[in-house]
Amino acid sequence: MMSDTTTKIDIRNLNLDKLSVFLKENGEKAFRAKQIDEWLWKKSAKSFDDMTNISLSTRELLKQHFTINHIAVDKMQRSNDGTIKNAVKLFDDMIVESVLIPTSTRITACISSQVGCSLDCNFCATARLKRMRNLNADEIYDQVAAIMQQGEEYFERPLTNIVYMGMGEPLLNYQNVISSIEKITSPKGLGMSPRRITLSTVGIPKMIKKLADDEVKFKLAVSLHSAIDETRSQIMPINEKSNVTELLESLQYWYTKTNRIVTFEYVVWKGVNDDKRHIDALVKYCKKVPSKVNLIEYNAIDDPRFVQASSDVIQLYVNQLEKNNITVNIRNSRGKDIDAACGQLANKEE
Questions:
Q1: What's the pTM?
Q2: Which of 28, 97, 169, 265 is catalytic?
């Protein structure tokens, strides 16, 4: 049942200036605003009672007027390979999923930006869910803070990387995603370097150009899977609105403005894109914009149309890309046994 606190304003919607004004109007010292702001963001306080250096009377004042719509990890699952999947409950009882991915050198947070997804990529489990709403900036931020805490608790290591590759299309929740990254990278927030953050998109040209114009500092990854319009449109209907040529133009614009290469995420499926024509098309595409390719292991979602291509075909891709001096990496999936791998986030518990 939805909490009645949702009728109050979430205090994290107030910037520092507005919080200072509120405190002064209620007979409090304005400098308290900085202390409260630090509790809300840097210390990720979940309640006003956590703010131990704020007087009881001030905390009661805050409780009367505001709430903190903090996320809660409703359920946590641990994979055999150490991956952790969180079912994250939002203030309105909706659920999204986030994932902690550990390796020997990294702790990566894979976070969601929407409840469900409005796109219809045929190979992705999240696409089967209806998009319910965008996440607020603080809800995105909270996912990172929770995984940061889990990294310290379970692995005794700090969070090193963040990928916006969970549920939803980040560029269709543009302002909240950008605001969340600003908070995550701020010294007053989590203090992460923007160069350790990657935003993954299906490729929406006008929004990619907006990213470039806004001079963002994080990395960009594009879920490509085919450089041939006919194939890409069959598996990713978004391609019918913005084809591979329009996408390429926006990525060239991105590189011109940011001087940062693009990462192409690419899954190879049997009978879909596992032939020489598709390999050659990808090589040709990559030559037109500075880029690298991540060949991603496919994670089945009970759709017989999509079956992982053979290792021999994957190697053909690798050989041809490397022959043309294009950096290529093979990315093996983590957390498959708990449906935490790429393309598997679908709130099965719900």
A1: 0.90
A2: 97
